[in-house]
Amino acid sequence: MLCMKLENYIADLLYRYDCVIVPNFGGFIANAKSAQVKNNVFTPPFKQISFNSLLVDNDGLLANYIASCDKMPYKTAVNYIEFEVQNWIDKLLTEELELEGIGTLYSVHDTIHFEPSNKTNYLTASFGLDAVVANQIEKQKQELVAKNEGLQIIDKVDSKPVYTLDKKKSNRSNILKYAAIFLLGSTVIGFGAKQYAVKQNNAIQLANSVEQQKNTEAKIQQATFVIDTPLPTINIEASVATPKHYFVIAGAFRDENNALKKVNELKAKGFQAEIVGKNKFNLTQVAFSGFTDLEQANNALQNIKKNVLKDAWLLVKE
Known about the structure:
The chain has 318 residues and is of the alpha+beta class. It has helices at 6-14, 61-70, 74-92, 134-148, 167-190, 195-225, 256-268, 294-307; strands at residues 19-22, 26-33, 36-38, 41-43, 46-52, 97-99, 103-108, 111-116, 132-133, 151-157, 160-165, 246-253, 274-278, 284-291, 313-316. It has a 4-stranded antiparallel sheet. The protein has a 3-stranded antiparallel sheet with strand order 1-2-5, with helices on one face. A 3-stranded antiparallel sheet has the order 3-4-9.
């Protein structure tokens, strides 16, 4: 029994492949695009999805993936695709066909047109990155500078904030100003008849401070060396495991018992297999191995696809 719509399988493959062909219908092509700036909006790198109605030959990618996910014969997966494609074609005769997370297809004069949804970024390198508005950055910067300088917003003119000095920091500044004036006045007064008395008093205070410091140091030294038998030193080695963010996926299972069997099977073959949670379709995912480094994960993925399972793919987790 299938657990997903056909477009969900296509969306999964677009994360890992640049072209996904739907036999007898067309191919969805993912082209990597660099970061862009438009209307003060910074967009991270992404995959732009397009549609080519000439790519109709079955390359086996989509059918094999469906068969692997749902543990069914390859022929059954092909029949399922043919059934769904016929439903798509029938719907396009009278209305638009919306594919969740991919885009919208519509027919004009027997020609299929495609508009990508742009709601999903299929470029795994940009996972977790959102578009950023430039004026938000400038606003946050101004507010941070104002906060550091002790300013607070009291009004807005033409959508721009008007600042005033924070009362607390203003009072503190006034206190420091008056203290400085007081010290300056005291100094001026001291340059007169009281200058000698002030210097003599300062000298006495300094001598007392020095004597008090010597006494304190002597007590500290005595307290430090009265322990004849100190406690043994205990060395504790603390190690923090580096979290794994990259996993080479071997398969996804509806039955957790099958997932555990797959883990044991892979461990028997020498892999550090593990379960890495469930995907959005509530399937338990099993990984050949997990990695902390993206380059190591990609190298392992290529080796596994070449020698063990060509449908293996890379999962990136935060």
